[in-house]
Design brief:
It is built from 15 helices and 14 strands. The protein is α/β, with parallel strands linked by helices. The protein has two domains: 294 residues, Tubulin/FtsZ, GTPase domain (Rossmann fold), CATH 3.40.50; 58 residues, Helix Hairpins (Orthogonal Bundle). The strands form four sheets. The protein has a six-stranded parallel sheet with strand order 5-4-1-6-7-8. Strand 6, helix 6 and strand 7 form a beta-alpha-beta unit. Helix 5 packs across helix 6. This is Tubulin epsilon 1. Pfam families: Tubulin, Tubulin_C.
Length: 474
């Protein structure tokens, strides 16, 4: 078995990461009835015996002693990390995995990336190396951060470049939370575009998640909770509505949103954590879904959108679940892939599903999904036998699709409105090492990315449909 390390940066990154660890522990507890430290647990957890003087890890196969998450927690404010250490997950982390400051980054990418990135570079590298040394076969770093704030966007992308520098052969998958157009951080367009350049240059895969899409999904769940039909109500102390699992009660409005992103991480890591008839190696995601190195933004969609029996609704039929995964309502960014062009697509299924079910549904959906002419068979599939708790099966679709282009164009427009007026620019230029050229270079990088998607979109009109078949006279 391989191991992966989760690096969570900033307030949002740590809140989402906290939900992931909580739900992952629940999944393993549901499956692991004997209390043994097995290979499934070893992929994301160490088993430490506190009685050993060196705090050494226990071997796979022994009793669970003291589980420690394979994680590094970074934030330039203490609040969220301090809350985690006071909550039910406090035993899962120790001080060697944490790095905090007190003043924050002031919603300024330059402060996070340049000021804190330089001041804490050695400390960050040491913690990353320590986490890597605890792994027998390190396969992947999962980086979680937001794009709108200063620490998430700035320090998060600085960590990404350090990962590439220190571990160039280890896969880097980033889950990045994009701000909505109505974001209350006025400088979020600057932060997001500056961060986009780093993501495009240094990540192997980026899973973009829009706050507005999460809000829409949570509102949909809320409507279901008021539905009068039997069997279609939201449980009151469910993982969607409760503030348990390491997130303080004051953060409950965001807990449902964080839960959805955590479920995305649960699904993408399921093949690493559990057995399956067709498990997908994490390295295969980039190898199969990214034909061009810069075009590595994969649109995630989930079905069901809630796990651990948050919603008492009848289980979706298997075929309907596949259809849902390609509908706008289940995308974690506001996009419609069916009206754009697919470069490739991965389907990661959990539960008692057969390979024949996968093939049948791919063949059923294929005619409605436009793929580039040179990759008509661009499907990657994975089957994990362990379903989410409370469900018979689940599906995560990762689409490398040109539908991300409108999201990036909207972000560029918001950046340009500020930049034309040079509004708030002085806050960035006062930071040591920050030059105005960084803004124009970041904008050029984003425009070039949009143009690459545009060129691919232009080929869609030239796709030749299947030749019509002759009808048999009756």
């Amino acid at each position: 078995m391989t191991q992966s390390v989760v690096v969570q940066v900033g307030q949002c990154g740590n809140q989402v990461g906290c939900r992931f660890w909580d739900l992952a522990l629940r999944e393993h507890a549901h499956v692991n009835k004997r209390g043994l430290y097995d290979e499934a647990l070893s992929s994301f957890f160490r088993n430490v015996d506190p009685r050993k003087s060196d705090g050494g890890a226990c071997c796979v196969g022994g009793r669970i002693q003291h589980l420690k998450a394979r994680a590094v927690l970074i934030d330039m404010e203490e609040g969220v990390v301090h809350g985690i250490l006071q909550g039910p997950l406090r035993e899962v982390f120790d001080s060697t995995q944490l790095l905090t400051d007190v003043s924050g980054s002031g919603n300024n990418w330059a402060v996070g990336n340049l000021t804190y990135g330089s001041a804490y570079r050695d400390s960050i590298v040491n913690k990353l190396r320590k986490a890597a040394e605890h792994c027998d076969c390190l396969q992947c770093f999962f980086l979680i951060h937001s794009m709108g704030g200063g620490t998430g966007s700035g320090l998060g992308t600085r960590v990404l470049s350090l990962l590439e520098e220190e571990f160039p052969d280890v896969c880097r998958i980033v889950t990045a939370m994009y701000p909505s157009a109505e974001d209350d951080v006025i400088t979020s367009p600057y932060n997001s575009v500056l961060a986009m350049r780093e993501l495009t240059e240094h990540a192997d895969c980026v899973l973009p998640v829009e706050n507005q899409s999460l809000v829409d999904i949570v509102n949909k769940i809320s409507l279901m909770s008021h539905d009068a039909k039997p069997g279609c109500v939201l449980k009151k102390e469910s993982t969607v509505t409760s503030g348990q699992g390491g997130v303080s009660p004051t953060e409950r409005p965001f807990d449902a949103m964080n839960n959805i992103v955590a479920n995305l991480l649960l699904n993408i890591t399921s093949s690493s954590r559990f057995d399956g008839s067709l498990n997908m190696d994490l390295n295969e995601i980039a190898n199969n879904l990214v034909p061009f190195p810069r075009l590595h933004y994969l649109v995630p969609s989930l079905t069901p959108l809630y796990t651990l029996a948050d919603v008492n609704i009848p289980t979706r039929r298997l075929d309907q679940m596949f259809s849902d995964a390609f509908s706008k309502e289940h995308q974690l960014i506001r996009a419609d892939p069916k009206h754009s062009l697919y470069l490739a697509c991965a389907l990661m299924v959990r539960g008692n599903v057969q390979v024949s079910d996968l093939r049948r549904n791919i063949e059923r959906l294929r005619p409605s999904l436009p793929f580039v002419s040179w990759n008509q068979e661009g499907w990657k599939t994975g089957l994990c036998s362990v379903p989410p708790v409370g469900h018979a099966h689940s599906l995560l679709a990762l689409a490398n699709n040109t539908c991300v282009k409108p999201t990036f164009m909207e972000l560029r427009d918001r950046f340009t409105k500020l930049y034309k007026k040079k509004a708030h620019l002085h806050h960035y230029l006062h930071v040591d090492g920050m030059e105005q050229s960084a803004f124009s270079e970041a904008l050029s990088s984003l425009s070039a990315l949009i143009e690459e998607y545009h060129h691919l979109d232009a080929t869609k009109a030239r796709l030749i449909p299947d030749a019509p078949r002759l009808s048999i006279a009756r």
